[in-house]
DNA sequence: CGGAATCCTAACCGATACTG
DNA sequence: CAGTATCGGTTAGGATTCCG
């Protein structure tokens, strides 16, 4: 039985990997995906909100660059490369003049997209509350 | 109507905050929570897996330190402070000799815990697949 | 258009020593 | 036990320049 369900995969992973352990490869993977740009790229390349059920999202490099306001081209390229290497995104080069490069999520990338989009929503939804907490904490420390 | 549902909060946040925008506070918040130690601390302080339905998780500093193998005391303290400031964890000092300090999630922290625990599980469940993708990518680049 | 390569600085972060 | 403080090496990542 070579194919395993997601539940079986989790069950086996629980035996093999534990991100709480320092040397565990999953710890490094967690570190890798715990990144602002990873979150925003994955969020941008998925279909959510108004785009739900619209098929796979395909974006050009320049589109991504504009969507993720403020990202340097170094960070964008570097992050996209590592996502491609990990099999989360597919990079497609169309040899036109000038060249066109598009990015889209793989199935694996889609599975992570859900979580990343959730993080982005969480940050937006709880910004006010966090801000209030910070003010309370800072003024309390004042006295 | 001062109290809003989670859905209403998201709806309003969608108007006010957008982490895709560079200057948006939610972008910084997303950056803040996109952190390996934040993920592991939030994951450790929640009730999941075998601990489900067991009430709120309370851990001492030293327990956390042991659970998050390899964390330096500087990073642990620093991350816990920022989580406390943001209102995600509660820090309780019991003035015994020597002093006892415990940490637990707030409601806000619980809401993020779900996502963070999901990220940890994702990393563990897909480690093999990512590893295989990397090997394929690296050997393909070889030629 | 979509990068790669280089330089350079700010920050991160671990190690160490000290403390209530 | 649970920190704080300081130092110093490493790295992240922006700015700039050049290229197919």
Report on this model:
The structure is a homodimer of 143-residue chains. Chain A is mainly α and 143 residues long. Chain A has one domain (24-136): Winged helix-like DNA-binding domain superfamily/Winged helix DNA-binding domain (Arc Repressor Mutant, subunit A, Orthogonal Bundle), CATH 1.10.10. Chain A is built from six helices and three strands, in the order αααβααββα. The first copy, chain A, has a three-stranded antiparallel sheet. In chain A, helix 3 packs across helix 6. Chain A starts with 5 loop residues before the first helix and ends with a helix. The model of chain A has no long low-confidence stretch (mean pLDDT 90). Chains A and B meet through helix 1, helix 2, helix 3 and helix 6 of A and helix 1, helix 2, helix 3, helix 6 and helix 7 of B. The structure holds a DNA duplex (20 and 20 nucleotides).
* Helical proportion of chain A, percent range: 55-70%
| CATH architecture heading of chain A | Orthogonal Bundle
Rg over alpha carbons of chain A: 19 Å
Strand content of chain A: 5-15%
Biggest interface: A-B, 60 and 60 residues
Order of strands, main sheet of chain A, comes to 1-3-2
Shape of chain A: globular
Q: What distance lies between the first and last C-alpha atoms of chain A, to the nearest angstrom?
A: 65 Å
Number of helices of chain A: 6
Mean pLDDT of chain A: 90
As residue ranges, the low-confidence spans of chain A are none
Q: Please provide the count of β strands of chain A.
A: 3
Work out the oligomeric state of the chains in this entry.
homodimer
Structural class of chain A: mainly alpha
| Count of domains of chain A | 1
Instruction: State the name of the first-level CATH class of chain A.
Output: Mainly Alpha
- What characterizes the major β-sheet of chain A? 3 strands, antiparallel
**SSE pattern of chain A:** HHHEHHEEH
Going by CATH, the homologous superfamily of chain A would be Winged helix-like DNA-binding domain superfamily/Winged helix DNA-binding domain
